[in-house]
Amino acid sequence: MNRRDFIKVSGAIGGGLLLTINPAFTVDAKTLVPLADEIGNFLRITPNGDVFFHFVKHEMGQGVSTAMAQIIAEELCADWERVKIDFPLADMKKYSAGFDTGGSCTIIYQWDMLREAGATAKQMLIEAAAQQWNTIPENCFAENHLVINKSNSQRLNFGDLATAAAQLPVPKNIKIKDPNEFKIIGKPKKAKLVPAIVTGSLQYGIDVHLPGLLYAVIERCPVFKGKLKSFDASKALKVKGVRHVFSTKPIAGLQTETPYMPHDIREGVAVVADSFWAAQNGRKALMIEWDEGINGERSTSDFEKFAEQRALHRTDPTGYTGNENAVSDVSHVRKTLRASYVFPQQLHSCMEPLNCTAHVRGHTCEIWMGSQAPNLIVTELARLFNWKEDDIKVHLFPSGGGFGRRYYPDMAHEAAFISKTAGDVPVKMLWTREDDHRSNLAHLFQHMEYQVALDKDNQLFAWYEKELRTYMWGARYQDPALPYMAYEVPNIRFDFEYIIDEELTHSSAWRGVVSHGRSYSECFIDEIAAELKKDPYELRLSLLKQDRDVFVGEGNYVSGTRLRNVLKLAAEKAGWGKQMGGGRGMGLAVIPYGGSYCAVVAEITITTEKHLIDRITIAVDCGRVINPLGVENQIVGGVVWSLTALFHGGHPIKNGRAVYTNFHQNKLLRMDECPPMEVHFVPTTEDRPGGVGEISSTLGVPAVLNAIFAATGKRIRRVPISLEDIIPG
User: Is the Cα torsion angle 627, 629, 631, 634 positive or negative in sign?
Assistant: First the structure.
């Protein structure tokens, strides 16, 4: 692919420069591999000098739109205050995989493309200025939204040059900045969208209004895998404003055509009305009989007992190094330590309830919603209704929280089906808070089994880990894998087993995905330290080797050096090793995620009346930092997320039904529960950015649990915790 295929230029309507580029690339070192054809309307410079960055990822509060704008503004040499963020139509044919947002990968995959886009636009502006001044481009340079003539200091604003630049061919050779020249990248910037959020001018999917719009709610089966037996809509249809009542059974069930994101749509009854209030009242008037099936007799305690019993049976190893059976090698093993940890399912708790507006017109469909993966919406609607993908149009909005839940296209399934069945009318389908708690997808369940063998010299001889999990993505995540750690142990074995068929609600991605349960390994390391009578910090350092990259399967390596660096910085800033009085303790945890590394130290005080986290100290190595303020917000927010799971989390099921029905039961961490937090960046030689959206969300739990043991001597192996778990005595 040459540059002309990669970047295309045209004049914008009303004049200016319109840059069209292709972000659908995977990044391998510094090589760009094209995956799809061009994407349009990416960068626009208007005649008045405004720079519009057409943001093609999903903004759900994580601030990634600001970080991406910083990268392109840096290479463009733009005035940061003149850069604006815009949301284009999600044209799948043009944008291909460019919209996909998840896995803390956005900046990682967009880094090279954004830099090249900004540098290309800058070069074209310089060439336009050189032509106007009758000089060569080498005599000109760009700075702070201006192109300047080196010879006589003449200046032209970007807006003055945009239209002329649009007439030029794409330059064959461009030069990106040396990092030492950065003036915007690496500087703390407030999120660009905050003023619009505060004033209410930023539109979300839930704000959409169309002429003739109807509203819909769905009464879904309260029991996972339950069936709709019968319903009587006569009373509902008498409610003023109610237009239609019908079953959603034709689109219900497990959707597996997208194998890496399977999702379940519960059977239910849709009520369509002139207003949301009328739809709600119509739903309340429904008479429904459900066939709850076997799950109607089961509860969380039943499921967890099943998982506990299943964990006792060894399966073939998913991956191992050394001797796969070394943990039971009696000729070398002096003592074996064992522990079981449980991380239950969690609710996503998005501030903006799930919603989707759809308008079907025969074999065409328009969708309005906030989505992390509009590409899945298009492919799934095309499959479900036998439409052409080109006839499906998605209007993409930011969302009030995604956390992985908005990756799934089921909201669009339901809305499109309702619009079609109701007579090809525009319909806004809304989930209530109660819907969100009672019948939504939830985070996966994990049961972790750990076993470590000590030899006659009290050295770690073998590590055995087994994970039982209720979620899968597809074949590529079933490749041989090892525990996601870099601790040096001669023999390591990892067993893995799916228990999807037994779960009581459908599992899905949650911020941090599978790392929550796996981060319990940091608690088990502390258990080993206690057995060996070693300081937990010193034990970790001894097991992490400098300049040692450890293969953990699935093509991934974990750096011992970078783990050591975050561990050392967090311990130093927290004052690890200082004298602690009665009822006080410190705990730490360290983990890699998304090409980044993070360590958390929790300091707590426990009395007979309360448990209190005094301070959280965090060290992070995320490679090249684009926006320190944005990264700090993400890291702190992730720990808050983790502490919510620690104190208030879980998704208990009783007789097949969710126990929590709203935020009065599914509590989130309150301000008075949130401890002071410090975020420190490890100096790094890494030139590329890593992911930060999910790395800290798994670390609050093990760090605090380890601190509780240090303070009380009590070992807790599941969340959420209660006061009774930790009060001495």
Answer: negative
Instruction: For residue 568, tell me if it sits in a domain.
Output: yes
Same domain for 321 and 419:
no
DSSP letter at 618? E
Question: DSSP secondary-structure letter at 641?
Answer: H
Per-residue buried b or exposed e for 40-57, using 16+ beta carbons within 10 Å of the residue's own CB:
bbbbbbbbebbbbbbbbb
Mark which of 146, 164, 198 sits at the end of a domain. 198
Chain centroid to Cα 90, Å, comes to 20
Phi, psi of 123 (to 5 degrees): -65, -40
CA distance 349 to 666: 8
Which whole number is the average pLDDT over 96-107?
Answer: 76
- The pLDDT value recorded for residue 86 is 86
> How confident is the model at residue 263, as a pLDDT?
86
Summarised one tens digit per residue, pLDDT across range 257-298 is 766 788 899 999 999 999 999 999 999 999 999 999 999 999
For residue range 478-522, list pLDDT tens digits in order: 567 899 999 999 999 999 998 999 999 999 989 999 999 999 999
Q: Do 579 and 721 share a domain, yes or no? A: yes
Kindly state whether residues 159 and 234 are assigned to the same domain: no
Q: Are residues 334 and 404 in the same domain?
A: no
Residue 206 counted as domain residue? no
Task: Give domain status of residue 205, yes or no.
Answer: no
Q: Which CATH number covers residue 317? A: 3.30.365.10
Q: Is the Cβ–Cβ distance between 461 and 491 less than 8 Å?
A: yes
Cβ contacts of residue 675 below 8 Å, gap of 6+? 612, 613, 614, 615, 616
Residues in Cβ contact with 302 at an 8 Å cutoff, skipping those fewer than 6 apart: none
- CA dist., res. 102 & res. 473, Å (int): 13
Q: Express each pLDDT in 530-560 by its tens digit.
A: 999 999 999 999 999 999 999 998 788 999 9
Q: Nearest to residue 202, comparing CAs of 400, 43, 433?
A: 400
pLDDT at 26 exceeding the cut of 80: no
- One domain for residues 414 and 534: no
Domain-ending residue, one of 399, 430, 461: 430
Query: Measured between alpha carbons, how far is 402 from 359 in angstroms, rounded to an integer?
Result: 23
Query: CA 590 to CA 585: how far, in whole Å?
Result: 17
* Count of structural domains within the chain: 3
Mean pLDDT score, 24-28: 29
Residue appearing with tokens 């034990």: 539
Q: How far apart are CA 485 and CA 535, in angstroms?
A: 19
- What is the secondary structure of 583-613 as a DSSP string? TEEEEEEEEEETTEEEEEEEEEEE-SS-EEE
The pTM (predicted TM-score) of the whole model is 0.92
- Tell how far CA 190 is from the center of its chain: 21
Asked if residues 266 and 441 have their Cβ atoms less than 8 Å apart, the reply is: no
CA nearest to 469, candidates 295, 313, 342: 342
Residue predicted with more confidence, 203 or 25: 203
Tokens of 408: 């799934």
Give 481's DSSP letter: B
Higher local confidence (pLDDT), 104 or 430: 430
In the 8-state DSSP scheme, what is residue 41? Answer: S
Residues 282 and 317 in one domain: no
Q: Are 389 and 344 in contact, with CB atoms under 8 Å apart?
A: no
**Residue of 450, 493, 445 whose CA lies nearest to 468:** 445
Q: How far apart are CA 260 and CA 406, in angstroms?
A: 15
- The answer to whether residue 437 sits within a structural domain is no
**Domain identity same for 236 and 113:** no
Q: How many CB atoms lie within 10 A of CB 129?
A: 27
Helix axes 521-532, 536-543, angle to 10 degrees: 110
Specify the 3-state DSSP secondary structure of 639. Answer: helix
Give the residue ranges of DSSP H helices in 77-105: 92-95
> Is residue 34 within 8 Å of residue 79, measured between CB atoms?
no
Answer yes or no: do 216 and 156 share one domain.
no
Residue 375 structural domain: 211-294+354-430
Go through the chain and tell me how many residues it has.
729
